[in-house]
Amino acid sequence: MPELSEIVSQFTSLGIDLDDEAAATCLDLCLRYSLDEESFVNSWIAFSFSSLGGADPSKENLEAFEKKELANIKTPKRSSTASHLQVYSTGSAKQISVHSADSFTPPRPGTSGISHTSSKKLNFSPLVFTPEVYTPSEKFNGRKNSGQTVSTLGKSFYEWKSTAYDVNISMYNPTDTSGWKFFYDTVMVTSNHLEERFEFLADEIVAANNLEKPTPFKHCGLDVMTFRGRICPYDKAKKSKQLNSIEIQGMFESDYAVMELDVSEVDNFAIFPGQVIVFEGVLVGKNIRAKKLYSSAVQKVAPPPTIQKPVQILVAAGPFALSDTLSYEPLNELIDLVKKDQPNILVLVGPLVDATHPKIAQGQIAETFSDYYSRMVQRIGDALDGLKIKVVVIASSKDANNLPVFPTPPAVDHSYKNVKFFPDPSLLFIEGLVLGVTSVDALFHLGKHELSNCQTNRLARLAAHMVGQRSFYPLYPPEPEVCMDVVAWARQAQLSVTPHIMILPSDLHGFIKEVDSGCISLNPGKLTKGLVGGTYALIEVRPVHSDEEWKVSSHVSSKIVRI
């Protein structure tokens, strides 16, 4: 029941002082229209600013509020009959009363809430309003290419049986993700972070290629000089035919002036918006005729890992459910494979609960996204409990229970038994092995905007951009689907070291390529592709024997396999 003191307190917290007459009127309105104190105050504030210019709640203003807003409210009568809305549990498709609080509590593993069929399939589906949401996919179950190898790298694998030992997994650069704040900075702070990042990278490119100190854009002449800048956004369809007018923004010494860059005479170039380059050319007026471009500031690869036994890693990237159902058959089969082959590490790259899945986007699940996500992860952990398999879950901005921002904090701020959660992107440290991983499709985004006349392998070149620009996401401005916080990006999405392996899930064709300075880039594909199954990747890292030198080319094997 509404109380006068609480109404006064709600207004006071907003800096509004009520006189006794206005307070009594507010209480009367709350009682007559069955409103709690907070709802009443929120409704008043909205009305006041939209109709009264933010006026205080006097008796006259409250009467106007009642006539225009509250009089339209029809107080619902309590129904003596039970609601017809039903909630379904996936395992047996039984109806659950919505009046039971226990109906929405995920059943504990091992209880009767989980259906144990003869095939002992795990139940990853949510509580739903209609059982059709988790109807098994006939197309997926009838496929013929399961287990087919798509791509390989390195020597043939040893027998894939776990060496049954625990491996330590941590962040290469530990970051406290519990207090992340997003879009909390002024435009000036954001701009400064961008400038600092771009100028630092330009200096590193100069040092890596032993170039002369860059010249400001102000110096015209016929001599070939060294300049530096950042590629500005462009229309790829137009600029592919107009290579003499690519806009480039200078750095501090050039007062951030924008010039036109002519790359038509450059033998080999590959550029994209946001790319930091150092180039040699001739400046004439507002146009620079480039002769040679430098865009790579590749660092040395991380030191060799200290592993004493082979480390086996299985990598799968979401989405994990087919687009027409939430039965999660591909994830079920993946867990069966993991239990059979027992790799040391299972890396699951989000999204686990895909916000873009039609069934989820249409609001057809009957529990919170957080409860659904937690229950799914717990069942994965329980299924692998006792097998000495570490599960790594990489966050995704597409997870329905997570923040739609990049970089993305872990969806869960604690660990389950054998499951650890990491942000997106992450540099993982596994017994000295450095593994870079992100859930954002940076390869596809770069490919949409890249202009190149190179004859090299396109997929390897796109991955090399990330290593050369020392960033998990070097494209700027980002694609619209990537809600990027620049300050967090400058802190969390940069490569402080060249990893041994880069895991870059993409909608592009799966591949395994060795790129600059001994780094392997791997696109495991997605576990599902619409209505059909996709692919996952297996990685085996072998230790050094005797006096041999450890190299990714000779000590890392990998293959991409269809689920």
Automatic annotation (TrEMBL):
Please state every residue range assigned to the domain named DNA polymerase alpha/delta/epsilon subunit B.
Answer: 313-513
Cell compartments where the protein resides: Nucleus
* Annotated GO biological process: DNA replication initiation
Q: Nucleus: present as a keyword of the record?
A: yes
Which InterPro entries does the UniProt record give? DNA_pol_a/d/e_bsu, DNA_pol_alpha_B_N_sf, DNA_pol_alpha_bsu, Pol_alpha_B_N
Q: Where is the DNA polymerase alpha subunit B N-terminal domain?
A: 6-71
Cellular component terms per the entry's GO annotation: alpha DNA polymerase:primase complex
Q: Give one GO term, molecular function aspect.
A: DNA binding
Claim: Nucleus is one of the keywords in the record: yes
Q: Which UniProt keywords apply?
A: DNA replication, Nucleus
Family statement: Belongs to the DNA polymerase alpha subunit B family.
**What protein is this chain from?**
DNA polymerase alpha subunit B
- Organism expressing this protein natively: Apolygus lucorum (Small green plant bug)
| Lineage summary | Eukaryota, Metazoa, Ecdysozoa, Arthropoda, Hexapoda
